[in-house]
Every structure is written in C-alpha cells, then in structure tokens.
Design a protein that fits this description.
alpha+beta, Leishmanolysin, domain 2, Glucose Oxidase, domain 1, 8-stranded mixed beta sheet, disordered N terminus
C-alpha cells in the first residue's frame, strides 16, 4: 500500500542534543528547537536572572531555552536515530488563575503510515519515529513536534499563587513547578507516548490504529485496542485498573522502576479484616520506612461544612494522640490535614476519598516538617472503616512485598483509565498507582529524580525506537549498551543495557586514560532490559572529578561502550 500521512492539531517540545559516542555505537538523536518567540518575549525575554542549579543562563529567556536543551539532550542521548528531530516551541501567555492553570500543550505534529521499513502495515506512527524507522525525513521542511508553554507562571502572583517555573537541573524546585520533568514528559508524548484514538467515541484516527494502541490491552475484554470495536474501546477507556501496557520490554523492566505498593491491613474487627489498597503522598516519610500500627480515630475539628475534614485545629486531640487519624478529603490541602493530625500527636494519617472510584487518590504537596506517614483509601473503603469504628478498628500501614505498585500482579504496568474519562490524561499515561512515581503519570510529582525517564525508555523500545526485534519469549534480540540518562549528569545517572541471553555480565567504568574507575556489575544476570545507577564515585566511594568517562559492557561474547559526561 502507498505510504500516507496526516497532520495533527497537537503540540510538543524539545531542544538540541549532540553526544559523543564510542565508535560503533548507534548515534544519538539530534533534537533542534525551532524558536518561534518574538523579540523580547518567551525564549528571548531579556529579564535578568542569576544562574541556578546547573543552568548558566543570565536572562529569563536563556534559562528557558537551556532547560529545553537539557530535556532534549537527555532524550537525544537515549534514542538512536540518524534523522534530526525538529521541535517548534514557544513560551506564551496561557490560561492561569490563582487555583488552576495550563502548564503547556505538546504532542506529535504529524503521523505517518505504510512507509518503508514500517514494522506494522496500516498503523500510525508519530512522525519522529516514522522518520527514524524509514531512515529518512518523511516530511522535510515540517517540524516534527510542536510545543507551547505558559509564560504566565513567571513573576505573576495571580497565576497558581505565584509559584513560578523552576529552571534548575537538580529537582530541588521546592514549591515551584520544575520545568525539566515537565519537558521530558511532554517530549515523551511527542516521541510516541500517546494514542490518537478519540476517547469520546472510541474511534481510531481515520479508521486506522496507531502503534501505541497496538500495545494497549484490556484484561476484561481480553483484546488489544486495535482489535476492538469502537464501542469496546470506549468501554475500555474507563475500565480502571484493567487496562495495561503489555509490550514485552516494558513488562520485563517494571521491577527496575517500581516498588511494593502501600497497603492498609485491617486486623480488627474480624468482619472487615483484610488488605486494602492505599494511595501515597509526596510528603512525609515513605511507608516502606515508617510502618505504623494502631487504632483508628476519626478526627473532629467541629467546623462546618465537614467536621471530619481536619482543615482546622482538631478538637478531639486527646483521643487522637498515639493513634492513626482518619480524615475526609476536601476543603483544604492534603498537607494541611497532615499538619493538623501531626499537631494532635497522631502517629499516621489515612485520607478518605470524597468521590467514588476504585483507585485511592495520590496526594501531592510538600512540607519537610511532616514526619508521620500519610496514606489514602477509596471512598467505599473509608466508609466501611467508619461504619465499624465503634467496634475498635485496628490497622497496619505498610507495603505488600509480593506485588509491584501500579501493575496488574503479572508485571504489566497499568495505564491511566479513570471513570469518568479525563480528556487529555486518560490512557496516554501510566496509572497514578505506580510507586515510585513515574515520569509519564498524568501529573508531574515532586519526588521524580532529576533527569530520570524510568519506564518510558523501555516503552519506547516496545514502540520500535531501538534496533532489534523483541518478543515476550526471546526478549531483546541483541545484547547492547543502550546509553545513560541523564547525560551529562550530576551527581547520578542510570546506565541502560539489554541482554539477549542470561549469562555473566561485566559493566565497568573507565576514565579516558583507560584507568578503571568502578565496576558496577560482575556476575550472572537474567536476559532482558537492565538499568544500573552510578553515583559518580570510584571503587573506594570517593567522588570523581568532572569529565568524560566510558561505560564498557561485556556479555555473551559482545563488548559495547558508551561515553558519559559528568559535570560539576
């Protein structure tokens, strides 16, 4: 069939990435920003700024552009393509109020199908990926990704309370909005982390599936999205906790990024004893390090409209001391509720959702002074606990080591499928139950590690960004050192590699003089994708100097190498 393309009314982003590689290693992708801002605004804003956390820019516009470059540099160092990616980008005033605002809009600018080397016929690919697979620019003269971001966040007290963008590279944004992970997230959409199906009616774009949809699987219907009718796809869109990504590479890698889920175990009374799903907070200690057990007490602040929401000073503090506080969601932030419970000497907090749904809510916010763990439960589970408080409810706040948070129990990561549908968020994101939080969840969380792309790198391998076929039985077809992210880095980076077969592995770091710096792995490892973190220290635990280092992978008779750049 003749190749065909279609343009999309979407948006996206990126920057410039040029990374020196060891001879024989697939070249990094060059991602170039096409600056569409006018004189004196957006990327060209001359407002003086002091350099911040690795960002050397001395004007507001330069700092914005530097973060775009940094995000593209990270993705460019991971994804191999001989075809340059062009990103049309701008910073412009967009909708924003004291309580809500648009951060930006991003996505692929065009899709293509039935091009030379297309792995699947009659399947849409985002144009950047289509160009990579065809090894030629399929739409010369057109930008591949388009992005627009909100300049109103800067120096504007009426926009989100004046929190502003953070332009550093170190993830120390505090109360501000960290631009780097937002850009990595949105660039991820433009590179392929999105379906083009219409979530309002279940129809496919021009009646044809996209490569993302071919990897979406509904456990209830036992079908992939490209196999469904429009009505079935529409139903699947809101089939919470039953819609998974079943690409084999991502599935094999879930244990590299996800940990055990938080749970609440009710030990008494016997009538409601059992294990209940729990949502986690971005503040307070992780439940893995702060298990709590004890009786549950419903808070009472005696202030309407809900005396159990813990938004003001808790009046039954004497009953709450040394106990676990049960608090209704709503009327104030999660942080305020935790602050009030901690002030009343509670040892833990359980937030009850104020809306129906099968997934406990994640809880955002920041307050380093909160030292007690905070978990959430669904409205139904919370109401059940409330109904039995008179019998003396005893709980254990802990984790379930037999499971991976955000998966279906068989290693498949869940996709976000809330009911009702959240347009702009549903399906084209990982589920909010993933722990630790992932880059491609619907919201950018404060606990994301600087420059980390976690499972998204593996999902891109399922989409076809990397050479070598994969399947669920054989795993990766080749053994190779994929790369590291972030690169350049400070102080840590993750080195990604694939093993075609199980066997002995040696991953060692050298300086440019050939001296061994540190051995990260030496011994047997399973086949599949792997990721090992280097903290910038040598074999004696001493911090190494800034400079270029070489990671050398030896496995199965193959040797591969890639350069890493440490900056300080």
């Amino acid at each position: 069939m003749r190749a065909h393309r279609t343009a999309l009314a979407l948006a996206a982003l990126a920057g410039l990435a040029v990374v020196a590689l060891h001879p024989g290693v697939a070249p990094a992708t060059t991602i170039t920003i096409v600056n569409t801002d006018g004189t004196g605004e957006g990327f060209n804003d001359p407002t003086p700024r002091s350099p911040v956390a690795g960002n050397p820019g001395t004007t507001l516009g330069a700092q914005r552009l530097n973060v775009f470059n940094r995000a593209a540099q990270i993705w460019g160092s991971i994804l191999p393509s001989s075809v340059q990616i062009f990103v049309q980008a701008s910073f412009d005033p967009m909708t924003c109020s004291a309580s809500s605002g648009v951060l930006g809009a991003a996505g692929a600018n065009e899709v293509d199908a039935n091009f030379p080397n297309a792995p699947f016929a009659n399947t849409w690919y985002p144009i950047a990926l289509a160009n990579k697979l065809a090894n030629v620019d399929r739409s010369p003269g057109s930008d591949d990704i388009q992005a627009q971001f909100n300049s109103e966040l800067d120096d504007n007290a009426s926009c989100l309370g004046g929190v502003g963008w953070y332009y550093g590279y170190d993830a120390n944004e505090g109360a501000a909005v960290d631009l780097l992970p937002v850009l990595l997230h949105e660039l991820g959409h433009g590179l392929g982390f999105q379906t083009f199906a219409d979530l309002s009616n279940g129809t496919l774009l021009n009646g044809q599936a996209d490569i993302f949809a071919r990897n979406i699987y509904d456990r209830t219907l036992a079908k992939h999205w490209h196999q469904m009718t429009n009505a079935e796809r529409l139903t699947s869109t809101t089939n919470t906790r039953n819609v998974i990504w079943d690409g084999p590479v991502t599935t094999a890698a879930t244990g590299l990024a996800l940990g055990p889920p938080a749970v609440i175990i009710v030990t008494a009374p016997v009538s409601i004893a059992g294990t209940y799903m729990a949502g986690t907070a971005t503040f307070g200690p992780p439940i893995s390090a702060a298990r709590r057990s004890g009786p549950v007490v419903l808070v009472d602040d005696q202030v309407a409209p809900n005396i159990n929401d813990g938004c003001t000073t808790i009046q039954n503090a004497s009953a709450l001391a040394g106990k676990i506080a049960l608090i209704d969601r709503g009327n104030c932030t999660f942080v305020v509720k935790a602050q009030q419970a901690q002030a009343a000497n509670a040892i833990g907090v359980i937030i009850v959702n104020n809306a129906a749904g099968s997934t406990p809510p994640g809880m955002s916010g920041s307050d380093p002074s909160i030292t007690i763990p905070v978990l959430s439960v669904t409205q139904a589970d919370g109401n059940l606990i409330k109904a039995h408080l008179a019998e003396g409810v005893q709980v254990l706040m802990t984790t379930d080591p037999t499971q991976l948070a955000g998966t279906d129990g068989q290693g498949h990561v869940l996709l976000y499928a809330p009911n009702p549908v959240a347009y702009g968020s549903s399906i084209s994101h990982f589920d909010v139950s993933c722990t630790p939080n992932l880059l491609m969840e619907p919201s950018i969380n404060h606990d994301l590690e600087a420059g980390d792309v976690d499972l998204t790198r593996y999902l891109f391998q399922d989409l076809g960004w990397f050479e070598g076929a994969t399947d669920a039985v054989r795993g990766p077809a080749v053994t190779r050192l994929v790369g590291n992210a972030p690169n350049p880095f400070n102080p840590t980076t993750t080195i990604y590699f694939d093993l075609a077969l199980a066997g002995d592995v040696d991953l060692t770091l050298y300086d440019l003089a050939g001296r061994r710096v540190k051995q990260l792995a030496h011994g047997p490892m399973n086949a599949g994708p792997h990721g090992l973190r280097w903290d910038g220290t040598d074999s004696r635990g001493r911090s190494v100097a800034a400079g270029v280092y070489v990671a050398r992978l030896a496995a199965g008779g193959n040797v591969d190498a890639r350069r890493l750049v440490l900056v300080k």
